[in-house]
């Protein structure tokens, strides 16, 4: 079992080593328990070990504690960071807005909305959650700053409000299907163009 | 107990009749069970009756079934509809955006985010949920249409996208405290002005 600590970083293959399968089982068990409604408080290493069919020691050999395991498990839901091309601010924003609330794992739709209010009650959990979304948020902030610098966006831009205007509608739609009228493959384009142009008559 | 069916419509007073207290207890039990993580599926008239300390017949004398009781209980979380003054489109939008995600009951922060994904899996529950938010959404749609008619908003306004741009950021902030940088009493003003003016340089 000495290869346990690095196995999760190895490329996947149908014949991957037994230890990597244990890592997978542990992350899967964590996500399954959360998707079934477990709170972070109620989620214990014991419960995860039992669900994954491994011993607690197997988990502690790979992760220092519950928060580190949670961070890995929740990152797994999101997939890799998007990579803006850097040519057009509009196109980069469409790419980043399209990635908002997009999860490669269907359990995310159950886990994320329920998790966030809970996360906001605990400073530790809030930091954990910020660790997951901060890199994505920073990508968008940089695109907006570039737009201001290059004169494509208003010089007096309220960056934080602009981020909320771009991400809020997409997240509501992806997580909550808030406006059924808006289920549309072009939604990221419509949101970005709406935020760019504003709604006031000129 | 024959006054049971109309008691919930009577004005509240410290000396309200016993039957009204039973109605209160039933609605409170429903909200408590949801706030504790009960799914709509798992929420039964039996469970509500047990929690409220009443018989099932007491519930059925007041509500035809679980969905009608749920509708009353969830409406209770929201409070009364806002009432736009109709003078300035901007001011009306600030009022309506300020009411988005505002609940008079703190249990809403736990109930609403977790409920909506579930609601979206069942057409019956989706209708129930639309019954709760449709009147609020319609208020905003009418303000936007008035703005277009009076020439304050663009003639080619995409009304549904505009509604998403106005409500999405506020709802994310209220429900999920999405952008900690935006905790601010002026947030409705900042959102409305951002959506009115857009972010593109001119």
UniProtKB/TrEMBL annotation, chains A, B:
SUPFAM superfamilies: Homeodomain-like, Tetracyclin repressor-like, C-terminal domain. The keyword Protein biosynthesis does not apply. Residues 1-17 have a biased composition (Low complexity). The keyword DNA-binding applies. Residues 44-63 bind DNA. Keywords: DNA-binding, Transcription, Transcription regulation. PROSITE patterns: HTH_TETR_2. Residues 1-22 are annotated as: Disordered. InterPro entries: Homeodomain-like_sf, HTH-type_TetR-like_transc_reg, HTH_TetR, Tet_transcr_reg_TetR-rel_C_sf, TetR_C. Residues 20-81 form the HTH tetR-type domain. It holds the Pfam family TetR_C_11. This is TetR/AcrR family transcriptional regulator. It comes from Micromonospora harpali. The lineage of its organism: Bacteria, Bacillati, Actinomycetota, Actinomycetes, Micromonosporales.
């Amino acid at each position: 079992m000495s290869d346990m600590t690095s196995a999760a970083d190895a490329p996947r293959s149908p014949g991957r080593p037994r230890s990597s399968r244990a890592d997978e089982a542990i992350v899967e068990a964590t996500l399954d328990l959360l998707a079934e409604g477990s709170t972070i408080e109620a989620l214990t290493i014991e419960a995860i070990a039992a669900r994954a069919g491994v011993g607690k020691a197997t988990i502690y050999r790979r992760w220092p504690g519950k928060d580190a395991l949670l961070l890995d498990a929740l990152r797994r839901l999101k997939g890799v960071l998007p990579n803006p091309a850097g040519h057009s601010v509009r196109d980069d924003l469409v790419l980043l807005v399209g990635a908002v609330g997009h999860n490669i794992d269907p359990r995310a739709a159950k886990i994320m909305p329920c998790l966030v209010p809970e996360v906001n009650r605990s400073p530790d959990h809030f930091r954990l959650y910020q660790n997951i979304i901060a890199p994505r948020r920073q990508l968008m902030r940089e695109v907006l700053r570039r737009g201001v610098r290059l004169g494509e966006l208003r010089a007096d831009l309220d960056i934080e409000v602009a981020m909320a205007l771009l991400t809020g509608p997409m997240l509501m739609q992806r997580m909550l299907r808030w406006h059924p009228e808006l289920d549309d493959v072009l939604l990221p384009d419509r949101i970005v163009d709406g935020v760019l142009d504003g709604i006031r008559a000129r």
